[in-house]
Amino acid sequence: MTGKKLCVLLAEGNPSEASQILRTLFAGPENNLELTIVSTISNLVSTINVVNPEVIFLDLGLSLRDPYDAVRLVRRSAPGVPLIVFADPSEKQRAAQSLAEGAMGYLLKGSMNEQAMKGVLRTALERNTMEGLADLLRDPLTGLYTREGFLTLGARCQEEAHHTGGTLILLCALFENLKTLREGFGPGAGNHALQDVAALLQSSCRRSDIVARLGEKQFAFLAVDAAAPSAPIIRQRVEKHLAALNESRSPRGPLDLRLSVGTWSAKDGRSFAALLDSVESNLRQGVSAPSRAGVSEGSTAVSR
Fold first, then answer.
1. Average pLDDT, stretch 1-14?
2. What's the CA gap between 24 and 1, in Å, rounded?
3. Residues 68 and 145 both lie in one domain
4. Do 184 and 69 sit in the same domain of this protein?
5. Is the pTM of this model over 0.85?
6. CA–CA distance from 248 to each of 88, 117, 235 (Å)?
7. Whether 51 and 151 share a structural domain
8. Residue 10 class from Cβ within 10 Å (0-12 exposed, 13-18 middle, 19+ buried)?
9. Do residues 278 and 289 lie in contact, with contact meaning Cβ atoms separated by under 8 Å?
10. What pLDDT sits at residue 255?
């Protein structure tokens, strides 16, 4: 690995296995590693804005309480920085579950080596590059990803889920009464309503999920590593938030959304584009059909 220095922030206890491997991996006259090491969660969080890391490593053993709390805290403090956790072999299940809390990958103590470290670093840097490109593909009105950005990041999430055995849940929403609101309250009200839909979906998902505006009145969000909550629970959450939002929108009129949800697992052979097409097709048809493998079919029109 050569080129500009890689800035890494590492929160690690003893023994210093990860730091030794990183220094070995970047050994040489180029010295392409800028490594900052802290020994507590509080120091990790306070150091993030100081060093602006490209990758963060977190030893789950440093957390005195629930290790997932530490993962969530780091993700809130640096939502755009890939987080890699490591843990004792006896804590493998917790390390794997941390992926659902926003970690990008994990390593196990005692079995870390240069090859494994290279793999997680490569994935982290690829994600940074792809998200940087996707940031150029945002809808100017809502700030959400466009269809192209959503497809780019969704395909990447699907590739990672193949390796981890994770599950993706895709929810698509059709803003059915946008035209009515524009005709009744004016173009400005229509744009405000679109921003309300964007905020509604963002409030219904986690930081690790991806939200997009796919077309003039089409939206979607992708729940990553979402074995729990299930697809019906995600749909119910959106419906609950929508009902509360509509109570506060009077007299500007309620938002009528039609929802459709699809589920993908590592055993599903479809591409991400095919999954999106399937859920959108069901949404446009507005039908309710028995579910089949991989997809929760059917849609729901929701207002208040």
1. 75
2. 11
3. no
4. no
5. no
6. 49, 50, 21
7. no
8. buried
9. no
10. 94
